[in-house]
Amino acid sequence: MTVFDVHVVEGGEVARPDLIAYKHYGDVSLWWVIAIVNNIDNPLVDLQSGMTLKVPKKTAVVEALAGSRMGGYYDLLDYSLYCLPSDYHSLGVMGHTQD
């Protein structure tokens, strides 16, 4: 079973990760999940037409968010450890650093 869907950014989605989140999750506020998994620091600049993105399956995101005492943020960061290159985490993601 794959844990990701693949999404190719279309012209109308450039600099709009919220639209992609809505397509996959039905919730525009989860745009940051897609940004973290794809190592996108600034979606207004980095999200370009034709890019292929890995999008975690909705079920995995829902489970991570539901299982956390912190609203799912840290569970999702832990989940992303399996998705991102190891050197990305050493730089820190939104204030989180790997110990």
Please describe what this structure looks like:
It is a single chain. With 99 residues, this protein is mainly α. It has one domain (4-91). Helices cover 43% and strands 10% of the residues. The chain is built from six helices and two strands. A two-stranded antiparallel ribbon has the order 1-2. The termini are far apart.
Poorly predicted runs = 83-99
**Given the helix and strand composition, which structural class is it?**
mainly alpha
Mean pLDDT across all amino acids: 77
State the separation between the terminal residues, measured CA to CA: 29 Å
How many helices? The count is: 6
Strand line-up of the largest beta sheet:
1-2
Biggest sheet features? 2 strands, antiparallel
Compose a concise summary of this entry.
The chain is mainly alpha-helical and 99 residues long. It contains six helices and two strands. A two-stranded antiparallel sheet has the order 1-2.
Helix-strand blueprint:
Elements: E1 4-8, H1 17-25, H2 31-37, H3 43-46, E2 52-56, H4 58-66, H5 73-80, H6 86-91
Helix pairs in contact: 1-2
Fill in the keyword field for this structure.
single chain, 99 residues, two-stranded antiparallel sheet, 6 helices, disordered C terminus
